[in-house]
Amino acid sequence: MTRESVVLVAAGAGERLGAAASGPKALVTVAGTTLLELALRGLRDAGVRDIVVVHTPGHARAFADVARRHAVTRLVPGGETRTASVRAGLDEVELATEVVAVHDAARALTPATVIRAVLDAVRGDVVAVAPALAVPDTLKRVVAGEVVATVDRSDLQAVHTPQAFVPDVLREALAGADDATDDLGLVERAIAEGRVQGRIALVAGSPRDLKITYPEDLDLVASLLAADRLGPAP
Length: 234
Prior knowledge:
Elements: E1 4-10, E2 29-30, E3 33-34, H1 35-45, E4 51-55, H2 60-69, E5 74-77, H3 82-91, E6 99-104, H4 112-120, E7 126-134, E8 139-143, E9 146-151, E10 157-159, E11 163-165, H5 167-174, H6 183-192, E12 199-204, H7 215-230
Parallel strand pairs: 1-4, 1-6, 4-5, 7-12
Antiparallel strand pairs: 2-3, 6-11, 7-10, 7-11, 8-9
Helix pairs in contact: 5-6
């Protein structure tokens, strides 16, 4: 059985959530449950047993309360940037781990099937995997507020988390890296520079793997959770 771990990045402050986030973003409550707990539920449903939560500095006690209820393996404070937080979490992953995934607590409704597919796809020469969806919208290139071109979207994909890696590949990609919103991009660069070898793959994502950023996103999550409780129509 493959030894796998997930680094769950939950260190964001949630400024763009406005009044909805009176504390750390991951501890914002929707329908009586924090975003962190929803994300942990998805990981557990996917069979993940080793979870490192990277929490907002200064809020260790609040995160520890959630961790105790959900059997989180380890807690570590985040850094000043997302990349620093990922590094902090990766440092807590056991050396025997064969596959490590980095996930965002802000993607609290990621289906367990997507999580499982990402973890299982790191095999052979595939050293990095992410879920992705085709881009449905027409895209425009804008310069100084003026539309200058329409972008061909036929070969574009929107990439989400969790993103899974061979641990040493991720460590090398993170070495000396500045802040990045996408760890897969760091691996792309490491491969292009010859620092690591292997292929990057994508698996089918899900519209439920949305990143909760604005207050209206919380309303959408609440609606989806309510629909889940009601179940399919008879």
